[in-house]
């Protein structure tokens, strides 16, 4: 089955096209990782068109969509999630959401990515790739993370340990989505892993307008 | 062959709107709103609105298709609000629209939210007279526009220099102990009151002021001072008279400037739009003054005055009919998109 994979949880957006078989074999046919910063909404659909063109395959042949659900900066994260939901809806395809951190690196590791506000997102994995802890959000100084660390190397200094650079990959997204690709009915709702509540506190009392 | 079927997306604030329009015929107008979640904050919280847009998106598309009795594969073009509005909210609709356009293999038209408020009137009252003038008033905008060609040329004559008119309603409602959003409760209370009871200030109406710009911040403060003075003196606040007098001041300035702009530019058609256009006093005064000045007033029904997907589809339909080129694949959202850019 041809699978389209998307992720916008980090400043590098990912669009990939892969051949997936129920025995777990994954053949990545095309992949574009675009350093897009805060321009995910501009660049994601062009990247999808790009991988379809690279593989010389029409969207009509895609049989499922996989997307990262974060955690990641909310505004960019939603771009990937709603794009996957809309594409799948328009074409009547199953759509599978996975934790984006699951798709970074391999084997025993702790994945760290930028959560902004001087915090990081993290998750820890066993040698067989199973997530054993997280995902969570924490200040690096307060983190108790077991290595090896992979993800965003910008945190090495504040974590006091080296971080091997790694990004979300198409193969990683499909690996994480394997159970639901084998049984699309088991896929949960496509809701982002926000990990933080909305930045809004109800005012306890309103100030007089004349002094505000 | 029938006219093109246009699917429109609107997510610039708290309403998730998806509408379908064929030519100038309104087929459906599905809406989800997160307003109830914002009430206790006394204003729209952008992150809460954005989360709600994402969850409402696909179900709202389904409702729009079902109401119109069409399937997604019938859609000939997709239109989406590219700005102005809340960035995080705009981006949910933009990404969804781009994905539907890609999946359905149809062109995508990014549109200006304000121009869409004008376009929606064509669904109810037929082709717009051009040039027309448009007065758009809501919680997010207060603008006076000259519209020589809705598909290609819209000119800003004036705008608010501080609060939007709808914001002033929200803040005055708060002063009077009324719920958010403030438009409907003030309108209701004002019906029992006297609009000439208190002489609240009319902002930017002096001889040297910008003739078409608005200011509602001073009015809001004047109302608050007036009410607080009564409270400090231990006197009862005549809520109905305050509401009516405040509403009168807003409606007076808006309609006086709109009629003056029509006269100055030799235009005899005025379109009213935006959520505040649902205000009964603004409608009545606009009708009265337009009739006296020989101006044809066009006001969409209250449902279409507030933000919705049909207005975006209406402008998209207009762009398709005018042969305007679709947007580039890397179309983005612009929270402060100028009105001169009708179709970014
Ligand atoms: Zn609006």
Keywords:
heterodimer; A: 212 residues; alpha/beta; Nucleotidyltransferase, domain 5; 2 domains; five-stranded mixed β-sheet; 10 strands; globular; B: 344 residues; binds zinc ion
Count of DSSP E strands of chain B? 10
Approximate shape of chain A? globular
* Quaternary assembly: heterodimer
**Total DSSP helices of chain A:** 4
End-to-end gap of chain B: 28 Å
**CATH architectural category of the largest domain in chain A:** 2-Layer Sandwich
Biggest interface goes to: A-B, 38 and 45 residues
Helix content of chain A: 10-25%
Secondary structural class of chain B: alpha/beta
Polypeptide structure, described:
The complex is a heterodimer of chains A (212) and B (344). Chain A has 212 residues and is α/β, with parallel strands linked by helices. Chain A has two domains: 132 residues, Nucleotidyltransferase, domain 5 (2-Layer Sandwich), CATH 3.30.420.40; 62 residues, no CATH class. Helix content of chain A is 24%, strand content 29%. A five-stranded mixed sheet of chain A has the order 3-2-1-4-5, with helices on both faces. In chain A, strands 8-7-6-9-10 form a five-stranded mixed sheet, with no helix packed on it. Chain A starts with a strand and ends in a 30-residue tail after the last helix. In chain B, α2 packs parallel to α3, α7 packs across α9 and α9 packs parallel to α10. In chain B, strands 3-2-1-4-5 form a five-stranded mixed sheet, sandwiched between helices. A five-stranded mixed sheet of chain B has the order 8-7-6-9-10, with helices on both faces. The model of chain B has no long low-confidence stretch (mean pLDDT 96). The interface between A and B is large, with 38 and 45 residues. Bound molecules: zinc ion. Zinc ion (ZN) binds next to α4 of chain B.
Short description:
The complex is a heterodimer of chains A (212) and B (344). By secondary structure, chain A is an alpha/beta fold.
